[in-house]
Design a protein that fits this description.
Elements (H helix, E strand, L loop, with lengths): L1 H24 L2 H37 L6 H25 L1 H7 L7 H13 L1 H16 L4 H24 L3 H26 L15 H32 L3 H17 L1 H19 L3 H34 L6 H14 L2 H17 L3 H24 L6 H5 L1 H28 L1
Helix pairs in contact: 1-2, 1-7, 1-8, 1-10, 1-11, 2-3, 2-5, 2-6, 2-8, 2-9, 2-10, 2-11, 3-5, 3-6, 3-9, 4-5, 5-8, 6-8, 7-8, 9-15, 10-12, 10-13, 11-12, 11-14, 12-13, 12-14, 14-17, 15-17
């Protein structure tokens, strides 16, 4: 878990640097642009990451079953699929950058900068997708050290790029976007070099680069996760649009708060990602008891750390948001959102550990269904209702996340016990 956590920390820092440097050396409009534009990029990135989870789970399963000859066709087919996805995203983000910015209800002062940010990231989308696919392959192989290395390299490159382009050349949001794309490109090159040099338990031939049965199986696992993540991130986009209507300060404050949130969610995310691979390997090896123990251990670790994070976010949130900007109004608006979001740092440990367990069992359709119910029945309706109140409070809007998560936990507990009971009866 620790290497996965380390990689996630660096990835979160990677995203936070853009906002930090623009907040310190750019304009409030640029800060809002990075805030809104990064939400769009997060949608793409997280959906691709979840789609690629199918690769991670199947590679781990094949290794557990000692059927490594299937891995080459799996990776070859996945490469073709994600190349097509990249091409589609490239066209959409380049041509529709301005309509996307308007749809996100970016403040009038920030629409132009937001469009530029989205367009530049769209131009480098091939690197962004490739990085996440390569990371999925490494995790499936049980190698979580290598992704840590190349994301660290990307983080250093991004920091240097931000300082040069934003602080030095005053390119504002555009400079942050260029630095992001360039850093991802560098990380992809390093990842490919490490993969080629790695002693792999499989071979890839030219004939593997086609849409084959192994690829279809990975898509079957990953697609429900991708759809669920798409809706989840779509709900965050909708939330961003709700808050953007409240003005430039609220938009910037929410963007800053989201970076704090990304750090607060690191441990649960690491547990979920590492658990999916661990559980899948043990299921493949026929060791279900060990898989269940991993889930409960993950919940315990997540709760312990979540309580500590909760205290910091709830009582020191203004100090945390103040790291990213000198604007006191933006700091207070960001802290306002964090007060409502704070309980999420505790309850999400339970939810994410259970999701990782179900992902490892190929129960991705259920993961998608419970995500849909959380989003459509709780998170979006509650956030929207709070945003249209006369004196709309970011605290009450932020509270929609933990309320939805508690609802998700209830759904997953019920599903777990039903599933466990059926398996127990089948054994008897």
């Amino acid at each position: 878990m620790m290497p996965v956590l380390g990689a996630l920390i660096l990835q979160a820092a990677y995203g936070a640097v853009d906002l930090l440097v623009v907040g310190r050396f750019g304009t409030t409009a640029g800060l809002s642009a990075v805030s809104t534009g990064s939400q769009v990029l997060n949608l793409v990135t997280f959906v691709v990451t979840q789609f690629a989870m199918g690769i991670t789970v199947l590679i781990a399963r094949y290794i557990g079953e000692k059927d490594t000859k299937q891995i080459g066709p799996l990776i070859g087919g996945a490469t073709v699929v994600f190349a097509i996805i990249s091409a589609v995203l490239f066209v959409v983000m380049i041509t529709l950058a301005h309509p996307i910015s308007v749809l996100m209800q970016a403040p009038e002062e920030a629409v132009g900068a937001t469009s530029v940010y989205v367009r530049i990231c769209g131009g480098g989308i091939f690197f962004i997708v490739a990085y996440n696919v390569l990371a999925a392959i490494f995790r499936g192989l049980g190698d979580s050290q290598s992704p840590l290395i190349f994301v660290a390299i990307a983080c250093v490159v991004n920091i240097a790029g931000d300082l040069t382009l934003v602080a030095g050349l005053h390119m504002d949001a555009a400079g942050a976007a260029i630095a992001t794309v360039f850093a991802q490109a560098v990380s992809v090159v390093f990842a490919l070099v490490m993969l080629v040099r790695k002693q792999l338990p499989f071979t890839i031939t030219k004939k593997d680069f086609c849409i084959n049965e192994n690829c279809k199986r990975a898509m079957k696992v990953g697609l429900p996760l991708a759809l669920q993540e798409c809706l989840t991130q779509g709900s965050f986009l909708a939330l961003c649009a709700f808050i953007n209507r409240l003005g430039l300060t609220a938009s910037s404050g929410y963007g800053v708060a989201c970076k704090i949130v990304s750090f607060a969610m690191l441990v649960p995310s690491a547990l979920m990602q590492s658990m999916a691979s661990f559980v899948s390997q043990n299921v493949g090896a026929g060791n279900e008891k060990r898989a269940k123990k991993a889930m409960f251990t993950g919940i315990g670790i997540g709760l312990a750390i979540g309580c500590i994070v909760f205290v910091f976010v709830l009582f020191k949130g203004d100090l945390l948001t103040g790291i990213f900007t000198k604007d006191t109004a933006v700091v207070q608006r960001g802290y306002e959102y964090l007060k409502g979001f704070a309980p999420e740092t505790i309850v999400t440990a339970i939810l994410f550990s259970m999701i990782g367990y179900f992902n490892g069992h190929d129960r991705t359709v259920w993961v998608m269904m419970q995500g849909l119910m959380q989003t459509l029945l709780v998170r979006l309706p509650l956030a929207y209702y709070m945003s249209i109140q006369p004196d709309a409070s970011l605290t009450m809007i932020g509270l929609a996340a933990p309320v939805a998560t508690v609802f998700g936990i209830i759904l997953n507990v019920v599903y777990y016990w039903i599933h466990y009971g059926r398996k127990k009866k089948a054994v008897e």
